[in-house]
Amino acid sequence: MPETRATVTCPACDRTETFEKLGDARAFIEDHRTETGHEATWELHRLSAGVERAGADAGVCGSPECTNADSPLYLD
Ligand SMILES: [Zn+2]
Question: Distance from the CA of 15 to the center of ligand 1, in angstroms?
Fold first, then answer.
């Protein structure tokens, strides 16, 4: 099974496409914008994994046990 590198979604037309090459994903977004004016978004899977890791390192996991009430980011 080929590795999926990027998932492109367009909320405006409820469309999801997966790509093995970032260049193909980028081309799809640009073509789709040209054809429809929609702003499709992409999720880069390697990048999102890195972002998740960075969030975990910072202690931001969203669960109550991890919430720091003294943090300026805390909202009650
Ligand atoms: Zn669209």
Answer: 7
Q: What is the strand order of the sheet 6-10 is part of? A: 15-19, 6-10, 41-44
6-39 per-position pLDDT tens digit: 999 999 999 999 999 999 999 999 999 999 999 9
Q: Is 10 helix (H, G, I), strand (E, B) or coil?
A: strand
Helix (H) or strand (E) holding 27: helix 22-36
**pTM passes above 0.85:** no
User: What residues have a C-beta under 5 A from ligand 1, the ion?
Assistant: 10, 12-13, 36, 38
Residue 11: Cβ-neighbour burial (10 angstroms; 0-12, 13-18, 19+): exposed
Tokens read off for 27: 């081309």
3-state secondary structure of 9: strand
